[in-house]
Design a protein that fits this description.
- The protein has eleven helices and 17 strands.
- The chain is α+β, with helices and mostly antiparallel strands.
- The protein has a four-stranded antiparallel β-sheet with strand order 1-8-7-4, covered by helices on one side. A four-stranded mixed β-sheet has the order 2-3-14-11, sandwiched between helices.
- β2, α4 and β3 form a beta-alpha-beta unit.
- Bound molecules: arginine.
- The site of arginine has 9 residues, from β15 and α6.
């Protein structure tokens, strides 16, 4: 895969990888690290928190009934931290850490399958072009002819000097957004900032409502590079309606795989800044938010028109009726394409099974009601009618963490 564009700004703006002027050739990539070797020595910054490392190790050993001797393992970890400021997880520790981070995700309704997360261990990869290629490989691996499998790719961990690699996009696949002079938007209004930044890096979208953005990857050299995804890594579902043939003319589609790419994975004091992960969609994410939010695709008026609904007053509930038709179209189209998708009724029941299983295992299940309850027909789902265990986001670990700076990057801004 070639760089679509890249810019080195280090000399003129030491901390800002966003280009402000002309394009420059890509800088030579740093040499990859060998995962069997101790992590590079700290240059600045802080060493891994030893207490966190120890707590994680003890939990790992206890919960997985690992046959390893924890004290011996701790001596090695402790030495490694003393020498390098960080330490290297075993594959088993990494796998369990990534899965439990999912289990700890209080906003996720789909956690019943937390223990089936496939972990692609790519800790030796941090060159931006290789990271981009591995992201494409991740998307191909998870697809499995539509039988989407929850998957994470873990890239090189941060050193005490900071991240070795960062993916700026919030998801591996997102659609560009182009503001028009009349105040409307072509594409996804959420991604206008990211689209602008990609343009500054030399990328040119076709200008359709569904142009897939390139990956923007920043290496340890603080250079941000633009890597278009190869088309065969991008699976999309064209939307049709089970009864209304005119629906296809709305020309709607969505990508099949939601792969979050800007959350940090934190395990035992080690931070993995680049660790994109995916599950499968719940229909309402697309049919009640992405295509519906007024600052996203805002499709309800067009759907209402297609179904000839009376939009003269809110009290006709035309929005609600259009919303249901749109959600039917999403589920119908994914089913037709053989792509995994869940509905909010099924997933709510599954989530309560998960909560029960966790209780049986003697664990609390952190959950954020406002995220767990689906945005359609909340009160019809069993997750609505109860409260959940309280939790402290700041201390719950392992975890996927969304930094404020990562949100700004995903908005195309330098943090
Ligand atoms: N809500 C986000 C989107 O619509 C995806 C978040 C993760 N969703 C999931 N089913 N794993 O793109």
């Amino acid at each position: 895969m070639t760089d679509q564009g890249s810019t080195r700004t280090r000399t003129e703006r030491p901390t800002c990888p966003i280009p402000h002027d002309a394009h420059h050739p890509p800088a030579p990539s740093p040499t990859p690290t060998d995962p069997t070797e101790p992590a590079p020595a700290p240059r600045v910054g802080e060493a891994v928190d030893r207490a966190e490392a120890r707590t994680f190790l003890d939990r790992f050993v206890r919960e997985t009934k690992s046959p390893i001797d924890p004290d011996e393992r701790w001596r090695r970890i402790s030495d490694q931290i003393a020498n390098t400021g960080t330490y290297t997880h075993t594959e088993a520790e990494l796998g369990w850490g990534a899965r439990v981070a999912w289990r700890n995700s209080a906003r996720c309704i789909g956690r019943l399958y937390w223990n089936n997360l496939q972990v692609r261990d790519r800790r030796h990869v941090h060159r931006p072009d290789e990271v981009a290629a591995e992201c494409a490989a991740h998307l191909r691996d998870t697809w499995r002819e539509g039988h989407i499998r929850p998957t994470i790719t873990v890239f090189a961990p941060d050193t005490p000097a900071g991240p070795q690699v960062r993916i700026w996009n919030e998801q591996l696949i997102r659609y560009a957004g182009y503001p028009l002079p009349d105040g409307t938007t072509v594409g996804d209004g959420r991604n206008i900032g990211m689209t602008r930044l990609a343009h500054r890096l030399g990328w040119r979208g076709a200008g359709t409502a569904f142009d897939v953005l390139p990956l923007l990857v920043e290496g340890a050299d603080e250079i941000l590079r633009c890597h278009p995804l190869p088309p065969d890594a991008i699976r999309e579902i064209a939307l049709t309606h089970p009864e209304q043939p005119g629906f296809a003319e709305l020309d709607l589609r969505w990508h099949a795989v939601p792969a979050i790419s800007n959350m940090r994975l934190e395990i035992g004091g080690v931070s993995y800044s680049a660790a994109p992960f995916n599950g499968w969609y719940m229909g309402t994410e697309i049919g009640a938010r992405n295509l519906v939010d007024a600052d996203r695709y805002d499709m309800l008026p067009a759907v209402a028109k297609l179904f000839a609904l009376d939009t003269s007053s809110e009290r006709t509930l035309w929005r609600d009726r259009a919303l249901i038709e749109l959600n039917r179209a999403v589920l119908h189209s994914f089913d037709l394409a053989g792509a995994t998708i869940t509905d909010h009724h099924t997933e709510s029941a599954r989530f309560l099974s998960h909560v029960r299983r966790e209780a049986d295992a003697g664990r609390e299940c952190p959950a954020d009601w406002s995220w767990i309850v689906p945005p359609v027909s909340g009160g019809l789902t069993p997750v609505y009618h109860r409260y959940y265990d309280d939790y402290d986001e700041a201390t719950l670990r392992p975890a996927y963490v969304l930094d404020k700076a990562a949100v700004r990057r995903a908005g195309g801004q330098h943090p």
